[in-house]
Amino acid sequence: YRGVELMFLLCMFGIYGSFNWCNCSWTLDRTFYNDQEPLPYEWKARCYANFYQECVLPTNQNYGIMSYSLWLIAATWVWAPFFFNPSAFDWDKIIVDYRDWQHWLKTKNDSADSWYGWWMSELEFMEHSTGFSRFVTWVRKTRFLAVAFGIYLQLMHRLFYKDLHKAVADDGAASVKPIILAGAIFAVLLLLGCCGYIASRVTKKLILKQRQLRKLKFNLSAALLVVAVVGLLYLSMRTLVEVLVIVCLGAYWFLQVTICRVRHDHIVATKIAQFFDNVVGWIVFCPILFVAMFVPFVSSFQQRMMFNSAFTAGLEVSKLLGNDVIKLDDGKKAKPTKAKKRPSSEQHKH
């Protein structure tokens, strides 16, 4: 999860980060504006068009150079077990691992061979932790809500100010549309919590009514599909993706709140956690499946490298840690020599 979280933050940095900007004031071209201060977007466009060399180019930064080391760390966290596994890119082995992973996710019991059993055992320590430690955990997990709020602010600024070539008013007057959209997102999260409460109350009563449950799921899925199609008519794909990311971050923060409240065994909490584990699993598996399917020579190259005696000798843990190799001869104990028996007097006579 830490590697996936770091990759997500790097993607957000690449999308919303500023890697160059106009470092000059509009007074540089005062005569063009007749001593009248232009709007920020107007001066920015003219600065990039006419003063790029002297105002923008000195501030230019490269995203790849700034973030390649962090991408390397994230890739190591996520795919390190596959890098040093000789059969990691073997197609048959990957298919077997994928089936085992799906079986582990779908198994519904409390054993260690199921996802639910692993989930309960991983969070068992929360039941024995103090209230202060749970509060500190909640404060740490609030970073997901802060990131969601930051994406929301960027979305609102782009929709209602940047794309419309407007500046944020200095008198505090603001449009009600951002507030309406924020209320809609909050309503979705509130509806999620209400559904969880209702599900915990009526699940036992509706066990014998599976047909009604399937019909309800189908109707909800159809309604969501209609809403998504209608949304495409008024919103761009980028806007829908940003709203989806905000909702997912809010749902993950809601999951962390349930964990801090020691309600991780709730049906909604387990379903949300299983969904995120499934997503993270696909993030790990998809590149491995792609390499194994379309670049099969990587598997043979990896096997030759891993089974090379010169390469494996350099990967010994003792040498990596700088410890001396203990020779086997030094560890052997000297065998005690048995004293020879002196011949008796009768043997001398004979």
From TrEMBL:
Biological-process GO terms, alphabetical: (1->3)-beta-D-glucan biosynthetic process
Transmembrane segment boundaries: 7-28, 65-84, 144-160, 180-199, 220-237, 243-263, 275-298
One of the record's GO cellular component terms: plasma membrane
Superkingdom in the source lineage: Eukaryota
Glycosyl transferase domain location: 62-118
Annotated InterPro entries: Glyco_trans_48_dom
Chain segments carrying region Disordered: 331-350
Keywords carried by this UniProt record: Membrane, Transmembrane, Transmembrane helix
Entry's Gene Ontology molecular function annotations: 1,3-beta-D-glucan synthase activity
Keyword Transmembrane in record: yes
PANTHER family with a match to the protein in the record: 1,3-BETA-GLUCAN SYNTHASE COMPONENT FKS1-RELATED, LYST-INTERACTING PROTEIN LIP5 DOPAMINE RESPONSIVE PROTEIN DRG-1
The protein, known as: Glycosyl transferase 48 domain-containing protein
Organism annotation: Aphanomyces astaci (Crayfish plague agent)
